[in-house]
Amino acid sequence: xxxxxQFDKEFAPRLAQLRTNKGVSAREMSLALGQNPAYINNIxxxxxxxxxxxxxxxCEYLEVTPAxxxxxxxxxxxxxxxxxxxxxxxxxxxxxxxxxxxNEFTKITGKKKKS
Length: 115
What we know:
mainly alpha
């Protein structure tokens, strides 16, 4: 439900997370978007909020869809998208070889999170 979400409180930390994962500074991203050097920093500190059009530019820059931007259960949507694109090029046999490996990784990751 939309009323359960606090987009204004979730937006800034999610932007910071995705930008940091991309390995760019707030200044660098601001300039790449054609904005003033403090633009992204002002959004991340809650001093400003982007227009809808700027939000779409932000998503494009971060290589995520708007839905992926708000999906906080996926901290690395850009990497997931790249992996899916690679997987699309594999044949069934190659996918069958990779699936158990991914399953083992998720088991290991799950154990670490419980600790």
